Amino acid sequence: MAAFLLSSGLFASCGGSGSTAPAAAATTPGAPPAAGATAGTGTATGTTVTSPPATAAVLGLTSTVIAPANGGKLFSVKANFFDDGFVPANPVSNYGFPNPIITYANTDGSVDVAWLDYAGTAGRNAGGLSTPHAIHITHVNADLSAGATTATGILSYKLLGFTRDSAGAYYIAYNVDHPFKNAIAGDVNNVNGNMLKVAKSASASFTTPLWDTLVFGDKDNHADGSKGDPGTAGGGVLAYDAAGQKLLIYVAHQMAWGVNGTRHQAGYLRYVDPGSGKLIAPGGASDFMGTGWLYSHNFNQRLLIDNGTAYLLAHGDAYARQLGFMAYSYASYAKNDRALLDQSYLAIDGAEGDNATNAQTGQFIKLANGTVAMVHTTSQARAARDVRIVMASSVDGSTKSSAWLTTNIAGVEAITPKLEASGDNILVTYGLWKSANRTNKVIEWHIVLLDANLNVLSSYVPTAVEFTTDAPLIRFGGGPHAGRVGWISGNDAGTISVNLINTQ
Predict the structure, then answer these.
(1) How, if at all, do strands 60-68 and 133-140 pair?
(2) Which residues are CB-neighbours of 481 under 8 A, at least 6 positions away?
(3) What is the rounded average pLDDT of the residues 385-406?
(4) How far apart are CA 492 and CA 78, in angstroms?
(5) What is the pLDDT of residues 36-78, one digit of tens each?
């Protein structure tokens, strides 16, 4: 297995009530997805979507800014994401990143936003902060007009997961230093935040948590099988299984193979007892296979729970070298650590473990008819990175259909794809970045509405917005915006931007 090499980078959040700025609604339709030279299809097949019909519905956007009253600062794409120290540069990096802003949509239409405080930081820190910063939770009202911020009391280098359960409790995954940390250049124990922890609280304040569990990372990193460095070259996600009443964590990490052995990167999945915080080991548990070593390298982690089944996306660079779609039930996990399904939706060209996949995992959702929709980018057999949407079976993981949403010319790269259901249709968002200038910090964002057959109904190019790489779109389940789709991000000012897509 090839050794994993990664440049250092960084992420962080503080409490109080929020203030609001007037909402600004976009009223004019945008241009269709950028067109360019037609490229052939390779391993990733699919039809090419057409431009929207003349009678297409008009898309628009309503945005509200909420400034946390505590003086904290949210992650900003322009200020904190771009890093031309990576090859390729960050917007099309082969590696994933922890999510510094994580949302949880409540059934009443309100949203809880956990965020890492970036106040006092600057520059290359998309992969984690150089010192621990505060994590905060901002509760955004159901009308999306205002919010109140609570300091959790947790300090972390990265935000590695946030969710709530059906009883209203809060869960946060974060990282702290391990007892073997040193300042020796090149030593495997010279790691910021080697220990992964998950905490539970009855409120947004974690000053008196119900429990605070160590997941891994307290060992000497020279030891065989020592796990650590959570979120490295990837991120982390927490999800609550309401049907099975279990908590799940899915995170990137590194582990030593042999005493003083090379530390390799992979994914890691564990069920957690939400009552006690105790980790639940899988049947036939091994740190070197199964959910203890889940795809390697694994650059993006995605997780959703539906009626007791945990669906996962993995971005594999070696074992397996593919964009993978997986599913587990608690029974399959507890019995023999076997996946219910494990299928490729993009076989990646190239050598195993070469740290270059030229692809990015986007968001995925399960539709009412049982089909799983997922979106990703790839430049494989294309002139540049393009956006592809895939419809897959939730039973066996097989691809049922797919379509290309862009046909970019060389030097125009698609990034940060996301999607969400909007009635019987699907909303897709993505960015276009011109890669000829490695220090270019301009991204042109696109919103596209597709019908059930993946035909374009309408498209829109919003301005003065941003999307955080790993943060999903939100579909509101209740309140005045029930059924509508939006997202929450930072902005150039480091405040909270609440964006609601108009589909009329």
Answers:
(1) unpaired
(2) 109, 142, 144, 500
(3) 98
(4) 7
(5) 222 222 345 566 655 555 445 679 999 999 999 888 999 998 8
| pLDDT (mean) for 79-84 | 77
Average pLDDT over residues 365-388: 97
Matching residue, tokens 């509200």: 64
Which residue do the tokens 């339709």 mark? 29
Q: Which of 191, 338, 314 is nearest to 250 (CA)?
A: 314
Is the whole-model pTM more than 0.85? yes
List own/partner pairs for 413-416 with CB under 8 A and 24 or more apart: 413/91, 413/92, 413/377, 413/379, 413/384, 413/385, 414/377, 414/384, 414/385, 414/386, 414/387, 415/91, 415/92, 415/360, 415/377, 415/385, 415/443, 415/469, 416/360, 416/362, 416/443, 416/467, 416/469
CA dihedral 48, 59, 111, 304 (to 10 degrees): -10
What 3-state class would DSSP assign to 180? coil
Q: What are 389's strand-pairing partners?
A: 375, 403
pLDDT tens digits, one per residue of 253-302: 999 999 999 999 999 999 999 999 999 999 987 888 999 999 999 999 99
Condensed to tens digits (0 to 9), the pLDDT of residues 103-116 reads 999 999 999 999 99
Residue 372 sits at the vertex; the CA angle it makes with 368 and 375, to the nearest 5 degrees, is 125
Q: Are 471 and 74 in contact (CB under 8 A)?
A: no
Chain position carrying tokens 């590695």? 160
DSSP helix/strand/coil, 250: strand
Instruction: For the chain, give the number of residues.
Output: 504
How many Å is the Cα radius of gyration of the chain?
Answer: 21
Would you list the DSSP string of 431-490?
EEEETTSTT----EEEEEEE-TTS-EEEEE---S----TTPPPEE--SGGGTT-EEEEE-
**Which residue is it, tokens 């960084």?**
10
Q: pLDDT value at position 80?
A: 84
Q: How far is CA 147 from the centre of its chain?
A: 23
Where do we find the tokens 């569990």? 213
Distance CA 291, CA 285 (A): 8
